[in-house]
Amino acid sequence: MDSMTSSLSTQKVQEVREVTRIERIGAHSHIRGLGLDDALEPRKVSQGMVGQEAARRAAGLILEMIKEGKIAGRAVLIAGQPGTGKTAIAMAMAQALGADTPFTAMAGSEIFSLEMSKTEALTQAFRKSIGVRIKEETEMIEGEVVEIQIDRPASGSGAKVGKLTLKTTDMETLYDLGQKMIESLTKEKVQAGDVITIDKASGKISRLGRSFTRARDYDAMGSQTRFVQCPDGELQKRKEVVHTVTLHEVDVINSRTQGFLALFSGETGEIKSEVREQINGKVGEWREEGKADIIPGVLFIDEVHMLDVECFSFLNRALETDLAPVLIMATNRGITRIRGTSYKSPHGIPIDLLDRLLIISTAPYTEAQLRHILTIRCEEEDVEMEDDALSVLTKIGQTTSLRYAIQLITVASLVAHKRKAAEVSIDDIKKVYSLFIDESRSSEFLKEYQHDFMFNEITEGVNGAGDVPMTS
Amino acid sequence: DSQKTCMMDGNRRKIHFAFRDGREMAEEYDMTTGGLLVRKWRKHREITGKNNSRSWIYEIGEEEVQKPVESEIVENLSNPICIRKDTSKSFQWRIRNLPYPMETYNVTTTDGKLITVRTTNRKYYKQLGIPDLERIGEVLETSRLTVAHANNTLIVSYGKSSNMLRLEKLIAAELSKIKASKDGDVECNQQ
Lengths: 472, 191
Description:
The complex is a heterodimer. Chain A contains 15 helices and 17 strands. Chain A has helices at residues 2-21, 53-67, 86-97, 118-128, 179-187, 247-255, 259-265, 273-289, 309-318, 351-355, 367-380, 387-399, 402-418, 426-435, 439-449, and strands at residues 45-46, 49-50, 75-80, 103-107, 130-151, 161-167, 172-177, 194-199, 205-211, 227-228, 236-246, 292-296, 298-302, 326-331, 335-337, 344-346, 357-362. Chain A starts with a helix and ends in a 23-residue tail after the last helix. Chain B has two helices and 13 strands. Chain B is 11% helix and 41% strand. Chain B has a five-stranded antiparallel β-sheet, with no helix packed on it. In chain B, strands 7-8-13-12 form a four-stranded antiparallel β-sheet, with no helix packed on it. Chain B is globular and about 50 Å long. Chain B has helices at residues 131-136, 162-176, and strands spanning 2-9, 12-19, 24-30, 36-42, 57-60, 73-75, 81-84, 90-96, 105-110, 114-119, 125-129, 145-150, 153-159. Chain A binds chain B through residues 134, 136-137, 141, 163-164, 167-181, 198, 200-201, 203, 233-234, 243, 286, 289, 291-292, and chain B through 21-22, 44, 46-49, 69, 71-76, 78-79, 118-119, 122-127.
């Protein structure tokens, strides 16, 4: 019986640990920033970025301009071959800007939705990237709870009556509580010894932690408990609170009754332009009165060649309004047809828009850089690899593509784990290479055996990475 | 530098100032003594505020009619209440509901800007500022501070300097020039 309970309890403890460790490891989760020094020169390997020095330096300059607020309404294009770090640079810029600046990332094909028109989707994306920082003064009560007393009326009907005693190191005050406050306090499970803040206007309660002086009262507390010092000075103070919202959120809230519910569900629908003009006017007023600040952020559109010519015309116009964020676009197409027309143009973008852009190009990686990137990814995914296995993987990356090599890392680590080895060896890599075919081998294979596959349309002399051939 | 309107209401002379940046101030003077009874301020409306009108922040005096309490948390009536009401010679605060003997109180000036009232039994703490002196840039001196205690009320006084008294005379002369309309009637344009 004892062993059962102890094994059950150890099982439970293990479960808790695993749940807390699960983090989604995305393709770019190893990037922390652009890795530039103070003179904006890129370091060879820093903050998760490797190589691509010219592109990183250019991105760094643009970042400086964004921070100084001088670049609102400009656009940047990052162009280069597949697997050369375009999305990585955009992610690095997002990390470097910090949590204050709104950064919206989207793919070109997200514009096409049945629920809203393309221009509406683009306008929403633009407005999601512009933040409004609202400064407000509220009366806040901050102190340590000495005692909470809630009395139920004896007669059964009638409201509960509550009293709360709060103190700081200098003073102590008794408060009478209304119905809603009593409910909030019981819901938050506020006890004597907790340090709390109450916003007088909204009635919102937040717990800051437990007071140090009460630490002796309990032996075991939950692992989440924080200890804070008892606050000093007056209990009631006027504090300045800063909220940051995006223009899109303001639009949605004002677009219909109970608008804030739409924010959570995501079904915003089309927002009328009158609502938007009203909001623009109001925000302008707030700016003049000094109540709010506008923070232009960054909108990143990946795969921008998927947008069609109508979207591009809209972008031309939208970039010229006063409230426009910085637009960063990325594409790996060369000279392709602009969607919606039959004209060809560099990157699939019309030349008049290209004219307004600052273009950063990325170059393919060298072998040493590839090796570095693979090392960083191995660390990120928690995989140990032997040196010669790493060399083989680097060679594979050079001949095929960086992405294929990165994907092999996880699979190879699983194979190694199956044979109970701690490190990935060359044999694991070879096995995985033969199991999973990369893009060029796949095209070769298909060319040979095309007759055996359904709906075969390949004509001779077409390189595997082209667009769908034009039909007249 | 502000638009002033004046009206008479019973025994009080009410003057309303409207500043150019959207703030408002109202003062009420007692007609018999000429003393300043009430001064209150109001800012432009907060963005996330509810639809109620903006509330006044009282610098001197307090609201005449206590509205029924809307907010969910209020100080209990047994707590000390501090009201400022100046005399002609000094700024004065009366803190009611303080039953402790005289020795428990410790009143000092802090940094030349604030008066701090403390009790040794850690039951009451308040920092009092004098915006009038801040506006003219005068520093607080401990020598002008006097404290008295009677009827469960602590009376803190800060003597006005000659500079301050002179300024008050000038302001009073300026305000007496404003034409007062009788009994709260403001002239309406019939157009």
